[in-house]
Design a protein that fits this description.
By secondary structure, the chain is of the alpha+beta class. Helices cover 51% and strands 14% of the residues. The chain is built from eleven helices and nine strands. It has a three-stranded antiparallel β-sheet with strand order 1-7-6. A two-stranded antiparallel ribbon has the order 2-3. The protein has a two-stranded parallel sheet with strand order 4-5. α4 links the parallel β4 (61-62) and β5 (93-94). The longest helix has 21 residues, at 116-136. The two termini are 18 Å apart.
Length: 239
């Protein structure tokens, strides 16, 4: 199983960092929607996205430090390079990281789903969500947003769409599936403007059908040997 990275263009470093931290509360959405790695070496791990457990083992994984200006981030980067453990931005395995040579931020938490259409729909969702955050600024990101970050991330990895998510502002707990559904409704206007409604509707439908981790488990439970499950997944992608 591979990962899917999605880049979003930003006009300057300050904008990139603001958007990076604003997106942090939606990271579980993308994990749960894209999850398609329940098996490791032939064994069902109990996680919808076991791939992220491997990534999380890297020493510079997880979340980016809370810096809202490029100048502040530059100070942090210089300190890290002086330790000798970092040479470039590629050494950070954060869930979302700046990519200054491209002028983007890069969302890195998605498993590669089992169809090209769904892969494109995930990119559409991110684009619409970023437009909503940039234009409407429904909240300002703070360091305290990360108090629930690891819990929310685990819920998405372990339980997928059936997990729970804690709102970092209100501290209320919701079903992840419901939170995604409400967010899709909130950004429908942007999806219409960006000609991304088909992608939004594909993801909306998938909330009730289930993610690809569920589909893989269902084929395995039907008695298919694991190589046949892999072959089915490859045929689905090629279709």
């Amino acid at each position: 199983m591979f990962g899917q990275h999605v880049h979003v263009g930003c006009e300057n470093g300050d904008t990139a960092l603001w958007l990076l931290h604003a997106l942090s509360r939606y990271v579980p959405h993308f994990i749960a929607l894209s999850a398609s790695s329940p098996f490791v070496q032939g064994v069902d791990t109990g996680f919808d996205s076991a791939r992220l457990n491997s990534v999380f083992a890297f020493p510079l994984s997880g979340r980016a430090p809370f810096a809202l200006t490029w100048e502040h981030f530059g100070v942090y980067f210089d300190k890290m390079t002086h330790t000798g453990v970092v040479e470039s931005m590629k050494d950070f395995y954060w869930d979302i990281r700046p990519k200054p040579e491209f002028g983007t931020i890069e969302l890195r938490v998605c498993d590669t789903p089992l169809s090209v259409d769904k892969a494109a729909a995930l990119a559409c969702y991110l684009q619409c969500l970023c437009r909503h955050l940039r234009e409407e600024r429904p909240f300002e990101p703070t360091e305290d947003d990360y108090l629930v970050y690891t819990f929310n991330r685990f819920q998405a990895c372990r339980f997928g769409l059936d997990g729970e998510i804690v709102d970092p502002k209100t501290k209320q707990r919701h079903k992840l599936r419901d939170d995604i559904l409400r967010t899709l409704a909130r950004i429908d206007e942007h999806a219409l403007d960006l000609q991304a409604l088909d992608g939004s509707n594909l993801l909306r439908d998938s909330l009730f059908v289930g993610n690809d981790a569920l589909a893989l488990r269902q084929h395995r439970a039907a008695g298919l040997p694991l190589p046949a499950v892999v072959e089915w997944a490859a045929r689905r992608w090629m279709a």
